[in-house]
Structure formats: C-alpha cells, structure tokens
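User: I'm putting together notes for a lab meeting next week and I want to include a structural view of one of the chains we've been expressing. I don't have a solved structure, so I'd like a prediction I can at least talk through. The sequence is below, exactly as it appears in our construct file.
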Amino acid sequence: MNLFWFRRDLRLEDNAGLYYALKEGKETLCVFIFDEEILSKLADPEDARVHFIYKTIVQLHQKISALGSALIVKYGKPLNIIQDLCLEYPIEKVFTNNDYEPYARERDAAVKEYLEAKNIAFFSYKDQVIFEKEEVLNNSGTPYLVFTPYGRKWKEKLNDFYLKSYPSLNYLNHLYKINKQDILSLHAIGFKTSALIFPDSDLPLERLHNYEHIRNLLWSTETSKLGVHLRFGTISIRQLVSYVKEHCAVYLNELIWREFFQMILWHFPEVVTQSFRKEFDHIEWRNNEQEFEAWCHGNTGYPAVDAGMRELNQSGFMHNRARMITASFLCKHLLIDWRWGEQYFAQKLLDYDLAANNGNWQWAAGTGCDAAPYFRIFSPAAQQKKFDPEAKYIRRWVPEYGSPAYPKPMVDHDLARARALEVYKNGLMR
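Assistant: Thanks for the context. Below is the predicted structure for the 430-residue chain, given as structure tokens.
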C-alpha cells in the first residue's frame, strides 16, 4: 500500500506526488495533517486561512469519498501521525510534494529518517513551482542573487516539458477502498469559522488579460487574487503558467518573482531572521511601539498607507501597490525593523507565503537581494497622486478622509526621508 500526504497541494487534478503514488497500481491511502506545530503559532482562533484549508479539505474528502475511499484527516505532530498510520496500515511507500520552508525541511527530514529505518520508502516531488532548488543557476553554478538575470534564465529554460500536467485524475481508481469516515471538526483543532471571504479559484483566467494596465491602480479590484490558491495548491502552477505565458507576460513575471524568492529561501534560509545583505544588520531602528500600533491600525495620517492597512485588517488582502507603500513607510519613514512588519503581514494576509513575504519586505526595506537602493523612499502622497488620483481606494477604506476626524500626518515626509538616509548611511559605515 502507498500513502499520499497532502500539504500545499490541495487538489486531485495535476498533482505530481499523487500521480506517482497512484500510477504504481497499488492501493493508495490519502492523509492530511493539521500540523499542531504550525497552528500553535496562530494567535487568532478565527484565522481565516485555517478555515479556508478546512473547507478545502472537506471538499477533497467529499470527492475522495465519492470514489469509495476517504481522506484521513488528523491533528498533531506529523511524525507521530505518520508513525501511527504505518502501524495501522501495511504502508510500503510514502509520497508527498516538496515544501521549501525551513521548518518543512526539518519536518520532512525527520519523517524520512523514521520511514527509512522501517524500510519504508519516502518520495517527494516538485509541484508548487516550475523550477526549484538548483534548476535555475548562473553560469558559475551558483544561485542568482539578482532577479533580472534569474528571470531571463528562467524563461530560457522553460519549455513544454516543464508545463506538462500530471494525469492524476486518470488513476483515482487506485485509491484505497475504505468505509466512509467522518473528519475532524474545525472546533476540534481549536479554531472557529471566519467571516472573511476568499476569492474563488474558478474565476476565468481571461481577467488577467488586462493585468498589465490595472495592476498598479489602487482603486481597481480586478487584480488576480490567485495568491491564496497558489499558496495552498488549490490551482496548478503548471496550468496557470501555460495560460499566462501566452496571454499575460507581466503576470508571468510576477510568478517568476514568486519562484525567485522560493529559490532564495531554499539556498539562504537565514533570511527568515536576518537581512539578506548582512551590512544592513547594523541599522539602528527606532522601533517606536506607539508608532507601530498607529501603522498597524491605519492611523498614520497618510491616506495611502492607512487605506492599505485597513484593507488588510478588514479583508485579509492588500493591493500589491499598497503593500509596497505601507512597507516602505514603516521601514523608511518610521525606521521600524522590517521584521516587525513582516510578522504583522504574516498574521493578517490570507495569501501569506513565507518566501514571498520575506523577500518583498526585505526589498522594501532595502536589505534584501535585488534590492532597490536604500535611498529610494516612496512618497505616500506621490504614490496616491499617481495610482489613486481620485481617492477612490482611500475613500473605500478611510471614510473619515478629508474630515476633521482624520489624523494629521504622524511624521513630516521630508524630515523622515532625511532621517532615514542618515540612519541607513551610518549603519552601512559601521
């Protein structure tokens, strides 16, 4: 018997690991594990991401049950649960798909070590990216540290082989036949339902055709909203890239950025807690807690910043241009450590992904790879004038804008800019 372990690949269609497990012709049992190590770090019992995963798992369970099998859903430490399943079922091989985050790598190494000691094979496959690990390297055989040449090499390497779908649906008859089983409730794992709305993964991809022209317009609600589905694998990256490479080169570039940051995290896992460019570890951040709270709640007196933060707090989403504006403001105007902002986004974003979140925050702070020069400091007013000239976005999220109830700017832009330049320069000279 084979065991397939669902993780960041919550779909039956075009699933690499599931395909390889099923195509051997052996009965395959499927499992999903709510990892208590990960869930214990989530402070909000109404965390919408857990609710989204749970609803997706319920749908997967229903599809698998309709085929006469069941999705085994467990809560706990993955190693312990895999051990228990291997005792309960005659498992010969375990299949899954690769996860590149530091914790996931440690988890999988421990599971693999246990399985191999029991003469049970462990197989893991590439599924959430087109290129992984050492597949895109520079001519010296080392990782790219700058996006532009990485993106060029990525596109040169791309061909139909890498976009070919895995026909996992053709082999579902090999799912292990098991009596219908109930799955854990959301309450049983310590969480509640959330009122936040997730974008549908079935929206027509034709909406991406205009992405190049609207992606920076703050007032537009027509951005892709596919980040959450890429994060949890409810859509196939191969199918998405196959479409956008023909119809939307700009959005393809965004997907390549996603893979660039995954590659950086794989080769340089220390970026989770350290600046990619070590010279910026000497910056003397102000880290004023009251100013951080004002930023978190969208009360800075800068409308473009406040609208972005309130959108995040109320919807779990933030327009990509607003993410850059709010991040730049926190790091440059307030001189608050990018790690504070990165962690806040990690708590709030429905589409939170460690690699992308970390990479983009370090880009905004000027501490990361392929960073803009540290002296590039966004003017929130200029950004508003360019990308929300009629204040449609701002009025949507900051209804008191323009009234006496709206706060004055908490810091003068010119003074903040001069202060940031001095602090960054002094940090580099240490």
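A couple of points you could mention at the meeting. The chain has a mean pLDDT of 93. The chain is about 45% helix and 5% strand.

User: Perfect, that's what I needed.
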